[in-house]
Amino acid sequence: MTSHEIDYKIYGEEMQFVEIELDPQEAVVAEAGSFMMMENDIKMDTIFGDGSGQTKGVLGKLFSAGKRLLTGESLFMTAFLNNGKGKKKVSFASPYPGKIIAIDLTHFNGKFICQKDAFLCAAKGVSVGIEFSKKLGRGLFGGEGFIMQKLEGDGMAFMHAGGTIAKKELQAGETLKVDTGCIVGFSQTINYDIEFIGGIKNTVFGGEGLFFASLQGPGTVYIQSLPFSRLAGRIVASLPRGGSSKGEGSLLGGIGDLLDGDNRF
Hints:
six-stranded antiparallel β-sheet, single chain, 16% helix, Double-stranded beta-helix, 40% strand, alpha+beta, 265 residues
């Protein structure tokens, strides 16, 4: 194996964290901001690029980092190396309510495709790159962008997704239609495309957007019930306007907002 062999345990229900046990000289790489805690003798090091450690030379590292920049991620990742003589533990936390999904890349022929913000951490040696769509329509109408991340290697990787997770095993030719934001990731054997919902009533009054994703098997698909974009939208929509708030338990509620003149037409 080229990736480090790590042991792990996931704790919690709604706000999970993953605890990774490292043998001496084993390491794990993570996105900035996901670190929670670690034991003594674990050394943190900022690395330039995708974290695989397989790129050679300055140009190779620049290309690796540039691919991450295209997905909206930082040019840098953080590596956590066990410099001690015994086993040591380091933990990484979920950024918002949801579930942590452990992916053994050896079960997916060394490659798994996921949403660009789903990756949490992985064993040292796993490459975190970009997966370009071959169809322009996916990029124009995909909702979450046509650039997705690909995790490559033979080690463990961990993704985070919002709400409750549904794992679907699609047979050859079987198709699943999904809101584009609800896709967490899928195996490389899945055929992914964007479809127009159609129908003037659906388009104008449906409220679900104009397009959805069509995922065709065979392969494995992970779906999330609460995409972060949907959660953020609900939070923004609930913020008080003009600094006035009647509260959830207000007798007048929205009517009070109309009467006090805060709403302007």
